[in-house]
Structures are given as C-alpha cells and as structure tokens.
Design a protein that fits this description.
The chain has a single domain (8-258), classed as Rossmann fold (3-Layer(aba) Sandwich). It has 15 helices and seven strands. The chain has helices at 20-23, 26-33, 47-60, 72-77, 80-83, 86-93, 95-98, 103-111, 124-133, 135-139, 154-167, 177-202, 212-215, 221-228, 264-270; strands at residues 8-10, 37-40, 64-67, 117-119, 206-209, 234-241, 251-255. The protein has a seven-stranded parallel β-sheet with strand order 1-7-6-2-5-3-4, sandwiched between helices. The longest helix has 26 residues, at 177-202.
Length: 271
C-alpha cells in the first residue's frame, strides 16, 4: 500500500456535525473507503474526536467495528435493541465500571453503524497478569504468534518507557515501566487478534475505535497487522488536539483541545 503523507486538517467545533465531508477531507475519505481496515484513533475524552469517528463510520459502511472499550464478553451480549437504548447499552457493557469517559461521548459512534461489535478490551485480570508475569503469559497460546515472546529492541523499549513515565507525570518508580509497556503490547495484540477475526468472519472492511497510542503506525496495531497479514490495506487516522499528536499516521485531523483537570494533581495528592 502506498503510504500517505501525514495530513493536518484544522477543524472548528460543531455543535451539530453535518455530513462526513464536513469533518473529514475528501482525500482522507477516499483512502478510508478503499481500505480493508480503517483504524480511527482518538483522545478518549474529546467529544469532537468521537463525532469524527461517527461520520467516518457512516462513510466507510464497515462489516464489523472493533472496540478497544468493549470486552469480548460484552460484545457477545450486545443486541440491536441494546444499541438503540443508551441505558441498556451502558448496563450490558458495564460502562460505568469500565473507567472510560461517559458513554454519551461514544454513543454517536455506536449509532453510526449497525455492523457487529467486536470487543478487544483487555480485562483487568489479564492486565494484572501482564504486569506480574509479562504480556506473553497473559495472551497465552497466541503469544508467540503475535511476537510477544520477543523482547523489543533496547532503544524502542527505552523510548516506550520514557513515554510511560511522562504520561504518568514522572511519578512512577522505574521498576513499573517495563510492566506498563508489557500491558500496552498486550492491548495491541488483543486488538489485532479481534481485527483479524472480524476480517475473517465478515469479509471487511473493518473499522477500529481506539486511542491514538494503539493506532500509531510506528508502534501500535499496524505493526502487528503488517507482520501477520501483510496483504491487508490498512488506513490509520490519528486525531490531534491543537496540532499536537505523538506517532505516525496516514492522516491526522486536528481538533481544539478540551478543558480537563491537570492529571498530575492525582499523583501529587498521593505523596
């Protein structure tokens, strides 16, 4: 697949988003609709990012949607009736207990497609196992197939650990950093596994709702897909705030940042 240059598209906040081409440039839409897998990155608590994802889904018309925020068990419990009822959807997915931003942000994305939902959220027990015994142990028999039994190159491991330290306000013990990197790799692998299953079972195209960190081409899901299914045409959208985003993507759409509390305050109160 010909790699597209990163495209920055500055958007204004819209209370009532219109057609997909009001939010997503034509050349990006064309690349999305030609792909087998479309990974739609986000910053989880930015409502504009979810509006863009919803409009993209309407344009893509996927045969399946893989969700980072939904467990495999939760996806199996879903029905058309649940998706049309936000309270029932929240109950079935145990959204309040999940720790994700309010379902009201994601509900337009659920409504944008009637394709089957595939869950790829790593349950807490598996995340704990990854921290204690490594990502390979947590994934089980698939670990070697997904490359989790092979350590990352030293430079990449160090870069990922530095990113984790910065993301946690430089407040973590260094001993915790390898564990956090292991969990990130596990989540990438679980998302990839769900994408491949969805592609096999539905024929595609498959859309993916996930954070920018898992979407990025230089580290995340695309690195797994290129190794495990190199024939897939994969398009990756990153979403930035005020022009800032980390990682490589096929295109980036920029939205204004949202007001949020300083995440580092939580670490200060623990000291």
């Amino acid at each position: 697949m010909r790699q597209l240059a990163i495209l920055l598209c500055t958007l204004v906040v819209m209370a009532n988003p219109g057609r997909a081409d009001d939010l997503v440039p034509d050349e990006v839409l064309a690349a999305m609709t030609a792909a087998d897998v479309v990974i739609l990155g986000e910053i989880h608590d930015n409502p504009q990012h979810h509006g863009i994802q919803a409009e993209a889904l309407k344009a893509i018309g996927p045969t399946a949607v893989v969700w980072e925020m939904v467990t495999e068990e939760g996806a199996q419990r879903l029905s058309d009736k649940a998706i049309s009822d936000p309270e029932e959807l929240s109950r079935i997915l145990k959204w309040l207990e999940s720790g994700w931003p309010p379902l009201s942000m994601y509900y337009p994305v659920f409504q944008a497609s009637d394709a089957p939902v595939y869950g790829a959220m790593v349950p807490r027990a598996a995340a704990r196992a990854a921290m204690e015994r490594g990502a390979a142990t947590a994934l089980g028999a698939d670990a070697a197939r997904y490359g989790l039994t092979v350590p990352l190159p030293k430079e990449e491991q160090a870069a990922r650990e530095a990113d984790q330290m910065a993301a946690h306000c430089n407040a973590l013990p260094e001993s915790a950093l390898p564990q956090l990197v292991a969990i990130q790799r596990l989540r990438d692998a679980v998302l990839t596994r769900a994408i491949l299953r969805a592609t096999e079972e539905t024929g595609g195209p498959v859309a993916v709702i996930t954070g920018n960190g898992h979407a990025r081409k230089d580290r995340g899901i695309p690195t797994f897909l290129s190794r495990m299914s190199p024939g897939l045409n994969v398009f990756v959208l990153g979403q930035s705030e005020d022009g800032i985003v980390e990682g490589e993507f096929d295109a980036v759409i920029d939205s204004p940042g949202v007001e949020r509390e300083d995440p580092c305050l939580a670490f200060e109160t623990q000291n």
